[in-house]
Design brief:
Layout: E1 2-7, E2 18-22, H1 30-38, H2 42-48, E3 59-63, E4 72-77, H3 86-99, E5 107-110, H4 119-132, E6 151-156, H5 162-187, H6 195-209, E7 212-216, H7 218-224, H8 227-233, E8 241-248, E9 257-261, E10 263-267, H9 287-301, E11 307-317, E12 329-331, E13 337-339, H10 347-358, E14 365-370, H11 374-380, E15 385-389, H12 392-405, E16 409-411, E17 429-430, H13 438-447, E18 455-459, E19 465-466, E20 476-477, H14 482-493
Parallel strand pairs: 1-6, 2-4, 2-5, 5-6, 9-11, 9-14, 10-11, 13-17, 14-18, 15-16
Antiparallel strand pairs: 3-4, 7-8, 8-11, 12-13, 15-18, 19-20
Helix pairs in contact: 3-4, 4-5, 5-9, 6-9, 8-10, 9-14, 10-13, 12-14
The chain binds ligand BES and zinc ion (ZN) (2 copies).
Length: 496
């Protein structure tokens, strides 16, 4: 999707569609009244008949039939004026773009960013449009003619602050490109997206951006004693990879933020095989790893002055002849032993070695992202990622980044008592607790591998993939994590 900045008057602007944000309770905006007047009171009439009420994310396309140079007006509801936030603008832009999906409209002009003088609305309008207009049509042999908007023009009344506006638009697009990179990776099917493929994509992306990228293969992991990660990989013919990305732009004395992402390219459950219904969705089990790659991509492209490391332990979890089995005892890289009671709890098995490896960087903080537990989907649905961690100020910073960017997180407790669920008779811990508090017991397990580091774990099992369209997250992979982490890193860069 291309963006163009144009100067002009909406009433004199020829285009296929003019995108107009509307409130539920305020019809006095001069652009709104100007268009309404040009259309002979059509908008006011729609409100009067309650055919369109300005309710958040409701849309309506009307034809102007020559009364204005714009061929159509796309009305999008933004709710009450006093409740307007960046998130509402982002959602409004996404809804509007999605409403034009099957209309044949290719180019539209947006007025959504004009609702306030805050640059935040420009950012939100661009984000909503790019993210809402995404489709993954890579494997459709016949591309749909109506695949959606190709170009969005942002109309401004005059040329003031144009340089600044250009900068905001470019930055928003850069960030969104990283989100779409993640969505593409997560959408790829498991027969394409293997640990080797992830590593290749990491190499390709990092070469373009001047990020250092190192990929460890099995032998090196063996040498390091990453037996927990290797145990998961044993059931598959796909060899594992351990991807290490480093972007150091804050000087050698600054401790890095280390991101760790679960990179299970397909999770069949292994010997503890998953039920067949819905198993195909488990191609998204590398969404955490992809988000880590996308965050490095965005951070480098935006040239944020931070030190950032990304670690992605990548493997496929299949029940092959050499697969790890329930009852096995595995010695992790940290030296702690793990009794396997469920081979489907493989995410923590690959993460624990990566979290231990992360210690070598003497990290300022470690943040891991993982589609880790079905229990998190039960607890929070697809509306928030689960957050657990050992440091209040870090959790606070993540929470405030989350509230700002709309990628919500919700904290679950991590009291020591939950460790009782993970006690093993034979090893230091089991790899899975019972049915209770599955999200927390998984986080408790991970905590055993972070040493004294400040750490936050984000369970994105419910947020990495949408079963239904959301305003700026069309059905499918969401790319969750990138915008959240970039906001968090921007905070660090500002020295929060
Ligand atoms: N990848 C799954 C978690 C998952 C489930 C993500 C559903 C998205 C939707 C993970 O590897 C897993 O299978 N976890 C088990 C853990 C259990 C065995 C302790 C689960 O949640 O059932
Ligand atoms: Zn699993
Ligand atoms: Zn998994």
């Amino acid at each position: 999707m291309q963006f163009l900045i144009e100067i002009g008057d909406p009433l004199r602007h020829p285009c296929q569609a003019l995108l107009l944000g509307c409130f539920e309770d305020d019809l006095a905006d001069p652009i709104f009244t100007g268009i309404d007047h040009a259309l002979g009171g059509c908008l006011a009439n729609l409100y009067r008949q309650r055919e369109f009420t300005g309710k958040q994310n409701k849309t309506r396309i009307i034809h102007t039939l020559g009364k204005m140079p714009a061929e159509r007006i796309v009305l999008v509801g933004l709710g009450k004026k006093k409740d307007l936030t960046m998130e509402r603008v982002r959602q409004g832009a996404g809804s509007a773009i999605q409403s034009m999906r099957d209309t044949g409209i290719k180019v539209c002009t947006s007025l959504l960013h004009l609702l306030g003088d805050d640059n935040g609305y420009i950012l939100a309008a661009v984000e909503g449009a790019v993210l809402g207009g995404y489709t993954f049509n890579h494997y459709k042999s016949k591309r749909d003619e109506n695949d959606g908007i190709e170009e969005v023009r942002l109309l401004f009344p005059d040329a003031t602050h144009l340089v600044e506006i250009e900068k905001v638009v470019t930055e928003a697009r850069t960030l969104c490109e990283a989100v779409l990179f993640v969505r593409d990776l997560v959408s790829q099917p498991g027969n394409v997206s293997t640990p080797i493929y992830l590593a290749e994509k990491a190499m390709e992306m990092s070469a373009k951006l001047g990020i250092s990228c190192q990929v460890m293969e099995r032998e090196e992991m063996e040498r390091l004693g990453m037996e927990s990660l290797l145990a998961v990989a044993k059931g598959s013919r796909q060899p594992p990879r351990f991807i290490i990305l480093e972007y150091m732009a804050a000087g050698v004395t600054v401790r890095p933020t280390v991101l760790v992402g679960k990179g299970i390219t397909f999770d069949s459950g292994g010997i503890s095989l998953k039920p067949r219904e819905g198993m195909e969705k488990m191609k998204d089990d590398m969404a955490g790893g992809a988000a880590v790659m996308g965050t490095l991509m965005a951070t480098a492209a935006l040239k944020l002055p931070v030190n950032l490391v990304g670690l992605v332990p990548a493997a496929e979890n299949l029940p092959g002849g050499a697969a790890y089995k329930p009852g096995d005892v595995i010695k992790s890289m940290s030296g702690q032993t793990i009794e396997i009671v469920n081979t489907d709890a493989e995410g923590r098995m690959v993460l624990c070695d990566a979290l231990h490896y992360a210690q070598r960087y003497k990290p300022a903080v470690i943040i891991d992202l993982a589609t880790l537990t079905g229990a998190c989907v039960v607890a929070l649905g697809s509306f928030a990622s689960g957050m657990m961690g050992n440091d209040e100020s870090l959790k606070k910073a993540i929470r405030s980044a989350a509230d700002k960017c709309g990628e919500r997180v919700w904290e679950l407790p991590l009291w020591e008592e939950y460790g009782e669920l993970m006690k093993s008779d034979i090893a230091d811990m089991k790899n899975a607790g019972g049915p209770e508090a599955g999200t927390i017991s998984a986080a408790w397990f991970l905590q055993k591998f972070v040493g004294k580091s400040r750490w936050v774990h984000l369970d994105i099992a419910g947020t990495a993939w949408m079963e239904k369209d959301r305003p700026y997250m069309p059905k499918g992979a969401t790319g969750v994590g990138v915008r959240l982490l970039v906001d968090y890193l921007r905070g660090i860069a500002k020295g929060r």
